[in-house]
Amino acid sequence: MSVYTGQRIVIIGAGKTGLALTDFFLARGARVALSDRRPAAQVPAAAELVARGVDLDCPGHDATLLAAADLIAISPGVALDMPELAAAMSSGVPVLGEVEIAARELQAPMVAITGTNGKSTTTTLLGEVFGAWGKRAFVGGNLGTPLIEATRCDDWDWIVAEISSFQLEAIDRFRPRYGLLLNLTEDHLDRYPDMAGYLAAKLRLFENMTATDVAVINLEDPLVRQLTANLPCLRIGFSSRGPVEAGMGFDGRHLIWRWAGRETRFAVQELRLKGLHNIENVMAALIPPLLEGCPADTAWRAVCAFAGLDHRMVLVRQLQGVDWFNDSKGTNVGSVVKSLAGLPGSVTLIAGGRDKGGDYAPLVEPVASKVAHLILIGEAADRIEQALGTLTHTVRAGSLEDAVQLAYRLTDPGGAVLLSPGCSSFDMFRSYAERGEVFMRAVGELPEEAAH
Q1: Distance between CA 265 and CA 253 in Å, rounded?
Q2: Candidates 3.60.21.10, 3.40.710.10, 3.40.50.720, 3.40.980.10; correct CATH number of 8-93?
C-alpha cells in the first residue's frame, strides 16, 4: 500500500507535469483533485479525467479545497506566493513540487543539472554518455519529460534530470548524487523579486547533499565559484581557461581531465558541437560518468556524436552567402551573449518577446562589436531599444515573419542572421519551439535570388 492511499491530493496546474502527477497519484490510490485557472473545456482530456474519478477545480483555485488537502502538489510554473496557495500553507497544508515527489520514489542515483544556460544540452549529453556505456538512464525533468514519469519503471541505473529554479523552490529532501551548476546570470526576474531570490532558488540544489555527494561547478563563473565555496559535499570544477589540478580543463585545443594522479586528453576538434559555451557543457557532462568508471573513450565518442538540440544555435540555411541560425531557445540575456560569441561579425540579430525583467547591459559590448542590424519584435522591443538601440542600426518588425524578410534585405553576403530573442515566447507563441519553427519555415520560404 502506498503512503498516498486514501489521501486527499490537490494538484495545481493541468499541463504536462500536472497530468503526469495525476496519473502517479491515481495509481497509488489517492483521492485526486486537479486545479487549474482555465475552464474545464480547456483542460486536456477533462472528461476522461472525471471518468477516472478526478475532481476538477476549474477555473480554480478554490481556497476551501486547498485548505482541506492532505498534500498539495504543484507544477513548476506555480509560484509559492500565489495567494490561495500561501493561505493553505499558512494553515499547515504541506506543499511539494513534482521533482520532490518523484525523488522520494526513485532508487537510482541522480545527476541533477541546473544553471542559467546550457542545462538542456548538458542533460542530453549525459544521457548519451550513460547510454553509450550501456547504462539504463532516464533523461528528463525540466528538459521535457516530467521527472515523475521515471517512477513508472524501477530498473533505472541512473536518473539524469534538468532542474530549474522553479522546481527547486518546492523541494524538501531532494538530494542528487551529483549536482551540476553550470553558470549564473540574470534570468526570471519577472518571477523573483531580485537576483538574490533567483540565486537562492538555484543553490537549493545542494542543500541536502553530504560529503558522499559531488558538486560539479564552473570555476570561471564568479558567482558560481563564490556561492559554492563552502558546500558540504565534494566540489569538482571545470575551467574553460586552462588546465586545473584536479578536474576538467581546456587549453584551447584539448580538454584535460586530471583525477587520482592520471591525466586524459580529448581533442575538441572532434566535437560536432561548436562554441566555447558548448565546450563547457561537454566538460560538465563528462565529469560524473568518468568519476563513476565510464571508459574515457566511450564517453568521448558519445559526446562527439552529438550534434546539438533543436532550436539551439541550429544552422537553418545558407542562402546567398548568409548563414541563418535558429537560437529560439536563447530566452535570456546571458544565452544571447554566448550565442553571439560563437559567431564572427557581422550579425543581424532578431531579438525580443516577453520581457523577463533582466538587465540588457551585458549585451552592450557584443552588440556594438558584432551586430550590424538589430531587428526587434514583441513586447520587449521598447526596453531593448532603449538599452541597445543607439549601438547599431535598429528597426522594428510587427511579426517574426516580417523580421525574417527585413533580415533578408539587410544582411550582406558573408554575414549571419541570428534569431536569439533573449526573452520568453509567450507574447506571440505558445513556446520557444513554436517560435523556432515559425522562424525556420519563414527562412525556408525565402527565394534563392539575391535580396540586394
Answers
A1: 10
A2: 3.40.50.720
